[in-house]
Amino acid sequence: MRTCFLSLIFLLSLALSSYAQPTPQTSRPWTYWWWMGSAVNEADITKQLEQFSGAGLGGVHIIPIYGVHGYEKQFIPFLGERWLAVFAHTVREGNRLGLGVDLTTGTGWPFGGPNVTAGTAAKKWAIAEGKLTTALTKQQVKRAAPGGAGLVVDYFDKTAVRQYLTRFDSTLAHLPQKPRAVYNDSYEVYGANWTTKFADEFRKRRGYDLNSQLPAFLDSTGADAGIWVKQDFHQTLSDLLHDGFTATWTSWARSNGYKTRNQAHGSPGNLLDLYALADIPETESFGSSRFPIPGLRVDEYYDVERFGTPHPLAMKFASSAANLTGKPLVSSETTTWLANHFHVSLSQIKPQIDELFTAGINHIFYHGTNYSPASEAYPGWLFYASTHYGPTSHFWPHFPLLNQYIERCQRRLQRSHADNDVLVYFPIHDLWATPAKSAGGIHQLEVHHVERWLLLQPFGKLGEQLLQGGYSFDYVSDNLLSNLTVDRQGQLKSGSATYRVLLIPRTTYMPETTLAQLEKLAKQGVRIVFADQMPQQAAGFYQHQRRSLQVQQRGKVLRQLRSVSVSNHVFQTLDSLGVRPEKLAPAGLSFIRKKIGDTTQYFITNLGDQFREGWFPLSVVGVTTSYDPLTNQAMPVPGRKTQAGTYEVFLRVAPGQSCFVNVVKSTIPPVTAQTQTRKADEPVLPVVGPWQLQFRQGKPKVPTAYSLPKLVSWTTLSDSAPYFSGQAHYVTTINVPATADTSRAYTLDLGDVREVAEVRLNGQPIGTAWCIPFQVQIPANRLRHGSNQLEIDVTNLSANYMRLYDRQNPGWKKFYDINMVDIRYQPFDASKWEPMPSGLLGPIQLTIMP
């Protein structure tokens, strides 16, 4: 069996050998790094970068923001001579340590500052003398750093954007040490819906004067003319944002040798087109998903109604744009407000990142880490809204374990490309036909509240059905359709991706130019499926009836083409066209399917409570192996042929777990093996104690030792233990009966751990459990008959200590602007918190590994 397994690994290594490996810099996670007041110095920069490198980070993203009270003399104005010097030092030290450096093209967010005048600032429409005219939004840069305050720039005016960027031409561009990439945060230019030349641009692009249709533009009854005019209004905003901001900023960055990272979400435009311009499209994971993983905690105070929850359908806009344009990296602002300050555990972080991986993200950016002087007292300088990943975090000692896991995953995800069968058209004109819900009467396509613009549309409903059915898919816009080519088999190709079917959700409005492109593709053999109906109308007001007649006529032509279907049973039609749904999703697993040459690679994660183990037919058959990025172990995957002649593999993925499964096409038949499942009557050995508990290093002081007849939270033990944050040492004896098979490997299931457990057996380290399920593997022959000493060191959260510290030292909250707030954006006050359960809670048991 071992020889056969080594042969499998050899075949896999051959399949991957011709593909470039990602560098450690990109495969490791990066972090946002806020510079408060830019009150930084070279010594502390070096120290923190060395800490980041030692913890396994790949780079930093610098965001200058507001300052700290009492440090005004250390404030460094943005882009001044001293600021440029410390930034250059940062890039030099990053190069020395193998860390990348990215930089926001501004301070705080959105773009703006002292060189933005009233003429180049963000604008909104107003009505004067019965006509649309221009007014200022007066929005200022939010969370601005010293030297960065001022009006927000007009994102719809390329002249204004270019003028804004000249500040960087005369400063940053002259440094020999430059950032890898410049960054634009999510679109948060509130109420902006106009620009000085909007009326002229509208006339040129849409063919009529908007003022001539002012009653329709202002209509709130849903009249047809009002819908058409508002579609034109949004299309013009989208065009101007694309040309005026995104293309201008991207062109400027590349001319100066920078890559671009762009968060297009929140924009009143087509996200796919905006993401597609970036070198690294970036989505955002804000808040906590409601995964039904047993034991996974969700902060009860997180305001879902206000902030929404992460959703993979929103994340796929960034990854779809990257796939269609051949961009190898897709990033994410990750775990913003995952839980309240000092409450986030590593076990809460991993499922959110696994969800991002299944949505096509492969370049994680933590949100985040604050620059803090080494001399600053605990907890140091902190950002008001984040998960704290810095050196004063309670999980910092075990942070490398999370980083290793992510690096192992991203190394594989970055060297592969998407293997999605379906390309789904995004009918944005149907969205623009619905009432707008954002300030200024516009549709802002945000990641927070996808239920407002995405999930209720036929496009969103179909997307959810595709996910649940196990279909692999990307999105495409009207503009990106023109980039598609067709191979000899009638498959669509773009960037690094190939698609078998183009799927059009139930759509009412479609530009006639888009239908013309669909007809062109269909005549080349592309299989196109329309859900329920052909589009009925053209988008927009100008000559609407004539253009709608063209839409209907083209629809009739399309219906006659052999490769086109109009289907009331979309999924049956997809299956008949060779689309490959994976049975993983209906079983309760999330996954992404990718390709590396002839190897098909799956990343699979269990974010629910439906699945444990089972047999599955995968969409490809070949030599199959699995890889566990948590333990860095590879294993052969058992396979069997069914009576029907199909081939199945056996997967075991407990709730909270994840793995890679690789299938290599080979002339060697798939290995067939029997699974070793634990029998229902096989004994399980409980570990019941008693326990000796001794507190070790921690704050505010070390409580007394205890003898515990059973496991309980240590916060129930004494007056001081409820405030303790640190590490406690548990010791007990396991008596293994003579009938137990100690030649087998065992799993030690620790049950509920608060929060990280380092395990030793008979004086030898076994492993560290930091995520759900809290388990470690005991190798064969490590247990012995009779007495075995089990030692477990448990580290808890810092929340309990902050209950005391915040009452005794409220002066640590000394930051400008918003200072510190809790997860509900109320003034931060930890003194009223209840103690968080801490330590080993169990139950603990040993089971024989299959």
UniProtKB/TrEMBL annotation:
Per UniProt, the keywords (alphabetical) are: Signal
Q: Is Signal tagged as a keyword? A: yes
* Alphabetized Pfam families for the sequence: Glyco_hydro_106
InterPro entries in the cross-refs: Galactose-bd-like_sf (IPR008979), Ulvan_degrading_GH (IPR053161)
User: Where is the secretion signal located?
Assistant: 1-20
Q: Which PANTHER family match?
A: DNA-BINDING PROTEIN (PUTATIVE SECRETED PROTEIN)-RELATED, SECRETED PROTEIN
Its name, as the record gives it, is Alpha-L-rhamnosidase
Query: What organism, scientifically named, is this protein from?
Result: Spirosoma endophyticum
